[in-house]
Amino acid sequence: MNEVALLREATPRTTMKYAPTGDFILALDGLRGVAVILVLFRHAAEPVRRACDCALFPVIGLDLGNLMVNGWIGVDLFFALSGFLITRNVLLFEERGRLFSWRSYLKRRSARILPAYLAVLFLIVAGMIPLYRIDPADLLYRIGYHLLFLQDYLRSDIIVAYWSLGVEVKFYLVIPLLLGVALGTKSVRLRWGLVLLFAMIGPLSRGLTTIIYEGDMTYAEFFPLLRSPFHMSLDGLGAGMLAALIEQRYRKQNAMFPPWLAQVLILGGSTIVFSLMISHTMLLRITLWDQIFQPVVMAAAFSAIILGSSMKRGSNIILTSRPLVFVGRISYPLYLIHMALIPLSWAISGATRADGSAALMLFLPVFFTLSIAMATLLHLSVERPFFAHRGAPKFRLSGYRTR
């Protein structure tokens, strides 16, 4: 049986169906929805906060707007999900005694990443997104390194958010090699040690760079130096891999986490993330905490949520809700297109950023509606035709139920 047939066997035919004891975990689609919604809130609220220089939604000494402005952590959630899901798929193949096929793997990854990415890149470069314009200077050079997914090391200046795609694609290329070595070892401790070492590359690299740099830095200095490069962003990817190894241990023993432990993981991880998000505007002033330790804590918290969600018996009502799963299903084209729609959304809303929360409340409905509509169109016209070629289930709402 080839890789495509195996994945079809492992995945429910109706993708909106929740199968808590199977290989498909619907709650993780809900987490994808959460991740992309956080990113959209960030890119909607941060310019408003900066323009008005005010609290957006002050309540008893806190600004609830921090939950929006700090939405950049949705990218870290995406990284943890990628680490977990890619590793889990490889482990499932190992458990079934299947040989890894580079050709099949690269075909599937390419069909997942390239069509929507190239389509949106073309629309932007061709100036087909109303009111969104890019700097024409050295455009061919910039398009070239975006096509090679080098924008995590070079400037991601066609769409800023595309830096994370450079990280993801490099991870897709590295992960089979790492897991091939790890799974080839007879020692379980060595296997776990190799994955842990991979997860530690990020904080160790940032630590060494921080020692050389000495002291606090601005966000403009921090982002290209410590945030966007692939080797600096491995915390979430590595933590997700470790979560997949833990989940495999229980799955191979035909066991499940006790319900209370799964709940502790979900609630504990969520509490840490929420507390960090609400407490202050993160990365406003880059300290040693932001440079080294915050990404580690965030990666651990998100991986705990993912692990708890994957091992929880029964349905997670919130994460498996139809709207959130729908957003999760279109999260990739939504991530690709949303920033290009910001100028048009402001024009349609008629709001002015300097008006603070009032402007944001006018802007958000337009921005979310337009972004989701365009992402759905991209999903149906560009992504979906390639799903059969990569063995992925087609997205449909019919047959949805939870149990």
Spell out the blueprint of helices and strands:
Elements: H1 3-10, H2 26-52, E1 58-59, E2 62-63, H3 66-69, H4 73-95, H5 102-125, H6 139-147, H7 163-183, H8 188-213, H9 219-227, H10 234-252, H11 259-279, H12 288-311, H13 322-329, H14 331-337, H15 342-349, H16 357-390
Antiparallel strand pairs: 1-2
Helix pairs in contact: 2-4, 2-13, 2-14, 2-16, 4-7, 4-10, 4-12, 5-7, 5-14, 5-16, 7-8, 8-10, 8-12, 10-12, 11-12, 14-16, 15-16
Q: Main beta sheet: strand number and arrangement?
A: 2 strands, antiparallel
Which geometry do the CA atoms define?
Answer: globular
Please give the share of residues in helix. Answer: 55-70%
Q: Which structural class is indicated by helix and strand composition?
A: mainly alpha
Task: Compute the average pLDDT.
Answer: 87
Unreliable residue runs = 1-22, 391-403
Supply Rg: 21 Å
Strand content: under 5%
Number of helices: 16
Identify the strand order in the major beta sheet.
Answer: 1-2
Could you give the count of β-strands? 2
Please give the alpha-carbon distance between the first and last residues: 30 Å
Structurally, the number of domains stands at 1
